[in-house]
Design goal:
Keywords: Cell wall, Cell wall biogenesis/degradation, Glycosidase, Hydrolase, Secreted, Signal. The chain is mainly beta. It has two domains: 98 residues, no CATH class; 185 residues, Pectate Lyase C-like (3 Solenoid). The protein is 6% helix and 35% strand. It has two helices and 20 strands. The termini are far apart. It binds 2-acetamido-2-deoxy-beta-D-glucopyranose (3 copies). The site of one 2-acetamido-2-deoxy-beta-D-glucopyranose (NAG) has 5 residues, from strand 14 and strand 16.
Length: 284
Amino acid sequence: MAGNWILAFLFLASIAKAEVFYVTSLRYRGNSKGDITQAVANAWRDACASPWPAKVIIPKWEYYLRGANLKGPCKAPIEIQVQGYLRAPQDRSRLIQQGTWNLMFDFVTNSIIKGITSLDSKYFYINAHECRNVTLQYLTITAPEDSHSTDGIHIGSSFGITINHTTIIGTGDDCVSVIGGSKNIIATNFICGPGHGISIGSLGKYPNEEPVTGVAVKNCTLKYTQNGVRIKRWPGSPTFRPRQSGTHCKQDDPSKVKISEIGFTNIKGSSATPVAVKLLCSRK
Ligand SMILES: *[C@@H]1O[C@H](CO)[C@@H](O)[C@H](O)[C@H]1NC(C)=O
Ligand SMILES: *[C@@H]1O[C@H](CO)[C@@H](O)[C@H](O)[C@H]1NC(C)=O
Ligand SMILES: *[C@@H]1O[C@H](CO)[C@@H](O)[C@H](O)[C@H]1NC(C)=O
């Protein structure tokens, strides 16, 4: 299958007995070879409002999808099953070019997201915001090397996120980035690169930003990455950041972000530059 991306078998919980919402039903009118963005959004909305366990099913055909925002909280568990292939629309209308292909999970709890394969999409990424107890497993995201600056998985304001058995190749930015308000984030058995590596931050960008705590990266392989694991901070105070031209800030302002209890153990590898480990602390 040429270009773009494919998404198959996505489960948000496995349910035996459920009310079933087919995106291809008369109610949602999703067609094979058609754009099912709206059909998926409507089926999700109804499934989420269902007081009984629900299943959203995308049957075994090929479709176009511009993106999906799977927003909770829902009334009962939902399983969403992608049996077919989803592709990003080919046409280069302005709307599509601006939007990164973004699978968004907002306010999702106690869920497993697994078995997503995204092939050669320049824009695909997964965004988890305000999620609790979510496991991302068996994901494969590959992007062409000239990919735009998008992260693989971006986590913010979330608690208890596990990323397991996942491969992210060639996204133009971080494989995983974790920002403010996130707690207990674990990445294990993870393969990343080329790309920027695994990042916490940038921190200290917004006023009253919640801290990031309890991030663990274990038994992961990072190949041809710009960095391995890193913590990024904005210099200066978020409430008063003197600006130079554009959006850049004064690099020599000390950061107000405090970093503590960091451990690196049992790391093996080679570095393309003379410095393998760099601790750049503020002067004040
Ligand atoms: C977390 O989610 C899993 C799977 O979705 C569920 O089995 C488990 O009970 C949840 N844990 C808590 C503490 O709710
Ligand atoms: C990762 O997946 C394996 C199953 O292959 C499981 O045994 C392990 O507990 C998982 N790790 C985490 C942190 O959930
Ligand atoms: C660690 O990762 C390697 C290679 O990715 C894998 O073969 C091995 O089973 C993993 N170990 C554990 C304890 O998960």
